Amino acid sequence: MRIEFWRKAVEDIYRDNAPQQPVARELWKAIKRQNLTKKWLTKIIDEREKNLDDRAYRNINELEAYAENTQSVLLYLTLEALGVRDLHADHAASHIGKAQGIVTCLRATPYHASRGKVFLPVDICMLHSVSQEDFIRHKQEQKVKDVIYDVASQAHVHLEHVALEDYLNKIQKADFNIFHPSLHRKSPLLPLQLYIRSWKKTY
User: Fold this and answer.
1) At CB < 8 A and 24+ separation, what contacts does 48-56 make?
2) pTM of the model
3) What is the mean pLDDT of the chain?
């Protein structure tokens, strides 16, 4: 299994015995060069393994935990690769990762629903009396939109980052209809928005 390969590969890499596999070799080089923290890599593997059962998140906390241990951890590793080891930077990365994970879950909902799967938090769906079948059938009732509103609101709690905020604003304009065509078009102005935010230092 691929998970087991990478679990063993990480152990071997930190014993300075990297597998003769291209990605593993490059990872070994990065770890040697930047002294990357082992626990971040093992967290990603552990969380991916727990997520193999393809079930919906039980609650928003479970979704956030998955985002923290995958998206945020990748950002921690990116910071380390850049030579940044700072509690404030890690704190920001944690929020960015959680927001990114929630937005990714929202973005993927139409795709997963078209294949008969729904991963949105069960507790929020139950709160609004919404079933997985409602999403699979692309229902656009107010209660379905209320689920999307609650999940999207949680991403706002973490931070307003331009690339994520753009999608969250689109959801709001679409009246929280996750299946609205406008949500599946890339913003041609996003690179310009990123540049302006960077220039103004308003991330």
Assistant:
1) 48/3, 49/3, 52/3, 54/117, 55/119, 56/118, 56/119, 56/120, 56/121, 56/122, 56/125, 56/132
2) 0.76
3) 86
